[in-house]
Amino acid sequence: MDRLDHLEHLDKALVDELAQVARETVRDELRRQTRGQRRKAMLYAASGAMALYAGAALALTVGLALAAGLPDWAAALITALILGALAYALRAAAKPSASRSTHVHGATAPLGPPGGLAGPSGYPPVPPVAPGGAGAATGAATGGPGAGTPAPGPGDAPAPRPDDIDPETPHHRA
Asked: Is the pTM of this model over 0.85?
């Protein structure tokens, strides 16, 4: 028995040592990845700051060019209007358009997945015959669609159509 207790102690020491090595390895890898992400974030922030200053310099240039032929207040007003129009155009470009979304209960919802598999209602298309329907008996013999699926029984309900689905109702059967 003493020999088994000694082996149990060695197993515990080995497990503890392996856990410590795994923790150190994971910690070092996370530290290395974080360092790279931090550098990238600082470069993006610096790029954004430089773009902001470049935009301010461009606005100043436009204002000074307009001030050459107009009073200073008119040049400043026209520059502000140009910047406002640009901001509005950028905001409109960032918003999803009506052709790409549907208005549902106060929120916009995309028409479907990025692959475009959904129909105009926003739901994926429903096959004309439910799987395992009338072709199930012949599908089993030929190996075609519906093979191996039981035929619907008298108590089975038909598959819901996209128009019948109400997003407000729970999705479980009573």
From this structure: no
